Structures are given as C-alpha cells and as structure tokens.
Amino acid sequence: MKQTLWSQILLVAVLACALTAQAEDYPNKPIKIIVPFTPGGGTDRIARVVAERLQKKWGQPVTVENRGGAGGNIGAELVWKSAPDGYTLLVSSPGPLALNRTLYPKLPYDSDSFVPISLMATTPFVLTVPQKAPADSLQKLISFAKANPNRLNYATGGGGTSSHLAGELFKSMASVKIVHVPYKGTSPAVTDLIGGQVDMLFVEFGTAQQHVLTGKLRALAIGSEKRNPLLPNVPTVSEALPGFLAVTWHGMVAPPKTPPAIANALSAAVAEALKEPDVAKRLLELSIEPVGSNPSELAEFLKQESGRWGNVIRVTGTVME
User: Fold this and answer.
1) Is residue 150 within 8 Å of 176, Cβ to Cβ?
2) To 5 degrees, how large is the angle CA 213–CA 44–CA 197?
3) Which pLDDT value is given to residue 22?
4) Distance in angstroms (rounded) separating the CA atoms of residues 70 and 65
5) Given CA atoms 169, 174, 179, 185 in this order, what sign does their dihedral have?
6) What are the φ/ψ torsions at residue 80 (nearest 5 degrees)?
7) pLDDT tens-place string over residues 81-127
8) What pLDDT sits at residue 6?
9) Which fold has domain 124-239?
10) How confident is the model over 145-193, as pLDDT tens digits?
11) From its phi and psi, is residue 175 left (phi > 0), alpha (psi between -120 and 50) or beta?
12) What sign has the CA pseudo-torsion 178, 181, 187, 193?
C-alpha cells in the first residue's frame, strides 16, 4: 500500500517537473490557432493579426486554421481535446465560450474547463440593411415590422451565433416578428445583404464598416452604449429600445489543464501585440477595440457574459438542437 502511494506521489512529481520544463522552453515548435468560424469575420481577422505578431516575437510559425460549423462547436471541441501544451489554441467570439452551454442541450466539450488566456478585443454590432431598403431609420423599420409580421427576415452568421442572439434580443425588445435566415458564416450573409436577398443583419461593425462607408449598405443603428465616432449620425439601438446592448468580443483560450506558466506567457505576449501602435491603429480603424486582459480577468468576464446572454436565451426561448 505504501509502495503504491509513493509511486503515485513520484509520478505526480515527475509530471509536474515535466510540465515546468515544458513551460520554461515554450514555445519551441509551431503554434496553431483554431478559429471556429469561416474566414473573413472579425474573429478571423484579429486571430491573424495576433498570430503574425506572435510569430515575429517568438520566431516560431503561428498559423490560423478555420474550423467552422455547428455554431463554433466543431472547432471548440477540437481544441478542447488537444494536448494541454500551448501549441493548439482557440480564438473565438462568444458562442463556444459563453453562449452554447445554454443554447445547446448537450455539448461535446465543457466550455468551463478551457484555460483562459486573454480577452483580446471588443466590437459593437451594427444593424445594417441594403442600400435600397425602404426603411431609412430604425423607427421606420420597427413600424414596418410591426405592421407586417414575418414579412421581414434577418440574416445571421449561423444559428446560435452572437448575431443570431442580437437579432432575437431585438425582436423581443421591439415586439416584432421577423424570420431568421442563418448562413454558414458572416461573409456570405453580408454578400446576400448587399445583393438584397435578405432584409437586415446585425453584424460586427468592423466587418460592415467599408460597405457602409462606400454606400453598399445602410447602417440604421449601432449596438453599443454610445454612438460610434466613425458613424456619429447613426443612433444607438438603445435610443429607440432603452437597455439594448449588443457588443461582441474575441477571446483566446487553451485546452483544459494547460499549465499556468504557459497561459501567462501567452497572455503577456498577446497583450504586448495588441499594444503595438500599428496593431492598435489597424484594429481601431475596423472599430475593433483592443483589450489584452490577463487570464483571471478573462475568467471573470466569461462568467459575466454567460450570465447576461444566458438570460437573453431563456427569455427569448432560443434553443439549438
């Protein structure tokens, strides 16, 4: 019995030493960042910006791989099952990290067990319509939707995504009936919105910004608490629907049991990258506000976001199979 106990203690000590040595030598091989969505969205863009800087800092290849599908669950599961060595990471918007645990009756991973790395950035949603849409204001859109139930539809980057929940929150607070049209990613949804195949879309401002500024899309309202200086004449949704808030974010996490030393090294490197003047300028031009938190700050943030959007999911009755 004593021999077995000592064997177990020795094994734990050996593993601890191995993990410590591994952390001190990190990174010594290529790093892969999984984005659980299709290319072109805000999450993909910020992941690639940070990957480029990490590669420059560490001299190791840092690649971004898009594994979209199932509201981000496919990519999240891949990372969750990966080795806890810091060489496979997840950069995601809210779905897999804070929403899907409430949206889906069963998940193939436990989002609570991911090791937090950094809250990388935040960005508001903007409610956009085709340039030729008859409604040229949020109030007119709401009035038309109330007078014509289920006549309008709203596109999203997929069922269960942040854009979907922003649309459901809008429907609930405006007391309107609008048909949901899910796409496999934000980019095809934006393309069809420009072409007039769908009526409206809550989309990350950075993704829609160029289309709005060039006149391909019309921005009716923004989901942040205050008006955006890049679009000072566009009201917030909350000016018409007090209390409405739809801001998305992008966070980095690692597989369960990733050593704290590796998490801290990654967190510091990400924060350093986001503070570089050219990176910050590049992101702010896309209306993406860089953050760069530490692991404990991200853990607390995820807890708050899970609670806030969990209430929205329950109130609106939004459920994914």
Assistant:
1) no
2) 50
3) 57
4) 16
5) negative
6) -60, -35
7) 999 999 999 999 999 999 999 999 899 999 999 999 999 999 999 99
8) 57
9) D-Maltodextrin-Binding Protein; domain 2 (3.40.190)
10) 999 999 999 999 888 888 999 999 999 999 999 999 999 888 899 999 9
11) left
12) negative
Contact 281, 260 (CB under 8 A): no
How much is the pTM? 0.81
| Exposed / middle / buried, residue 74 (Cβ in 10 Å: 0-12, 13-18, 19+) | middle
Q: Is 176 helix (H, G, I), strand (E, B) or coil?
A: coil
**What confidence score (pLDDT) does residue 21 get?**
53
Q: Do domains 23-122+249-316 and 124-239 have the same CATH topology?
A: yes
Burial class of residue 276, CB neighbours in 10 A (0-12, 13-18, 19+): middle
Confidence class of residue 315 from pLDDT cuts 50, 70 and 90?
A: confident
**Tokens in use for 79?**
């990372």
Q: Residues 38, 158: contact at Cβ < 8 Å?
A: no
Cβ neighbours of residue 189 under 8 Å, at least 6 residues apart?
Answer: 155, 156, 157, 163, 183, 198, 201, 203
pLDDT at 161: 84
Mean pLDDT estimate for the chain: 91
pLDDT at 30: 98
Mark out the alpha helices in the chain (DSSP H runs): 2-24, 42-58, 73-80, 94, 100-103, 138-147, 162-174, 186-195, 205-213, 260-275, 277-285, 295-316
CATH code matching the domain that covers 23-122+249-316, chosen among 2.70.50.60, 3.40.190.150, 3.30.1490.100, 3.10.450.50:
3.40.190.150
Domain borders along the chain are 23-122+249-316, 124-239
pLDDT of 19 higher than 60: no
Lookup: tokens for 268:
């510091």
3-state secondary structure of 68: coil
